[in-house]
Write a structure and sequence with these properties.
- This protein has 16 helices and 16 strands.
- By secondary structure, it is an alpha/beta fold.
- Strands 1, 2, 3, 4 and 5 form a five-stranded parallel beta sheet that branches. Strands 10-12-13-14 form a four-stranded antiparallel beta sheet.
Length: 475
Amino acid sequence: MKIAAAYIRVSTDDQVELSPGSQLKKIREYANKNGYTVPDEFVYKDEGISGRNACKRPEFNRMIGTAKSKPKPFDAILLWKFSRFARNREDSIVYKSMLRKQCGIDVISISESLGDDKMSILIEALIEAMDEYYSINLAEEVRRGMMEKISRGGLVSSAPLGYKVVDGELQIDETTSETVKYIFDSYLAGNTILGIAQELNERGIRTRSGGAFENRTIKYILQNPSYIGKHRWCPNGSQGSKSHYRSGSETLIYDGRHLPLISQYDFDKAQKRLSLNKSYARETSKHENALRGLIKCHSCKSTMSLLVNKGVKYLQCTGYTHGKCKTSHSVKYNYVYDSIINSLQNNDIVHISKHIVQKNYKEKNKEINKQIEKERLKLSRCKEAYLAGVDTLLEYKENKEQIENRIADLYSSIQRYDVIKQAKTIRQNILTYMPQLLGTDISLSDKNAILKSIIDKVIYDNTTKRLHLFFCCTQ
């Protein structure tokens, strides 16, 4: 009996499709009649997810990843309909071709039975084209309906902080509206966006989703026309989840039917101050950075990013700039880089061995243990196949021996940790690359790559003005 996987997808727009449970039942019925078995570990479900884009379907991606493993874990993928696999012809062609040619795995629609002849290939292509047309047309119809609703002042999104939805309409939420009023009053009184975020977090006040306030959260509230009784909506869905921050020509603003929280005068005043502050804002440097991703804040462990202020480069905790970290860790970039280079030049083997981070080894061994568990599951299925009469005793012995050999090989590959040996290797790498780090022949990006091959992270403690280096493990 051949092994098959079952892929099940139900999106929010599929009102006429079978439920996940019904799809699985139909798939199992088909499998039993056609010589397949569908183990529970090979049942993949994406519920409430569109089929337009494969990268947004976690279970689909997990199934494809499993299909690529050797030996192949299953012989076919069973679907209720081809539309469950993809509503994008490009994705459908790419993944089906890869599965069939590289993995030897068929993709079978149990309700759209096709043969192997030329006509069946044409019919399958027509089905996929119709599914894609349906998906695109449905999106256009939904967008058209939302456009009509918002033009009448209706609500087409969730309630912002300070409001709640009652019978499909926005109503002022007495428990959170005072926070919104405070944000506007504080900002107009001269407080900074960063200061407001930090103060709200210190008071234990949370955003609508229950998270901490950040700079961008405060700025979004200050720019949201919902607070003056309007709705803002971007009909171009291709701009993604950040489209609600946009205020360009593609963004539509309509009068709503809800009561405003903020006066038009105060709202306009806030916009004027935001536009003035914009020109003086510190700009994140997009230039090459030899320390990118390496320096961490001692207080909150966030990465410290490179900023530029009046031509001077410095590092600052991203948690602080977003309003989450209470402590500023501002430090000049050149001071940090020179200190790291000096530390690398002066380190001996004993000092390095005290700071080696074992994370790399732990992660590698964790992955090996996962592979061992997968092989043990295969061993269990082999036994079940023998007991069920699917495999002969000879086949069972051969399969068992192969799997046990793979398990033994995996056990032998588990890394053993030798601190002194690793310290010597790291010291040798430092000596090898130091001329390049000190020179000007290579780019800052290349220097960053060299440093990351030696250093796992550097923690900067603003209270003591000290840098703590943690070294990477090597093979």
